[in-house]
Amino acid sequence: MRIAIFGDLHYPSMIHKDKEVKEARDEFYAKFLQSFFEIKADYYVSLGDLTNFGKDDEWHEVYEIIRKYDKPFIHTFGNHDLYGIPRVEALNISNMKQNISIETDQVNLISLETARDHNHEDHSGYLSDEQLEWLEDELVQSEEKLVVILAHHPVYDTTANSNYPYLSIVPEVPIINILRKKKGNGIYINGHNHKDSIETIDNWTFVQTSAVLDDQSIRLLEIDDKEISIQSIHIGNSELRGLAEIIGSNMNHFQLNPLGIGTTPNREKIIRKTLYV
Question: Which CATH architecture fits 2-272?
């Protein structure tokens, strides 16, 4: 099984920008998403902040590109996605369902919603008691089967910078206690912090992806009976990098991060499946 993933895309509105900047935006995202969907995979995932400020034109324009490829696409919302239009409207445009579990022969794939609605002051992650109860049931019922959780915010104090304020699910939410109830392997994949990072804690591997404008890479998760491979596929070139710099330098609510790209151990990993006897 193969799952293709990208981090924070931040597709921006360019209504009031110069023609050159808008053309750079259109060309960059068209080419990046084309390369993303050309990769052979069973599922294609956005880890949230697909849009830059959740504006109506951002949602419609980016989904117009995505729908051209007619692929099985999962979008777990990020805080930026919910700054503009209401969540119910975002769900209608994206045709997504939230807090979903997809069971296959090899993996239980969980899309977990962690973003707050229309909260410009607090961009940390949050889970309700109902979400935690649902997640616990999913993990217990999975028994030893691999579980992959897709979320926007990291679990507190796992991946890079996730111990800083606003850069994780708030520590008051006891998600780590829920994750500890999982038998066998678990992988938690998130964006939000715009910095590559892979950390292993007990039977869980926590994977954090950088932002697309900083690094034109795609994460590919390959799963077989014995191991899980996390690869980083760089699809950028000097042209895309130049377009990304134009876009990132002309956006509000976003700042390019040249330090977001991690070294290989923070981008790739082989995980041997744990067998319980």
Answer: 4-Layer Sandwich (3.60)
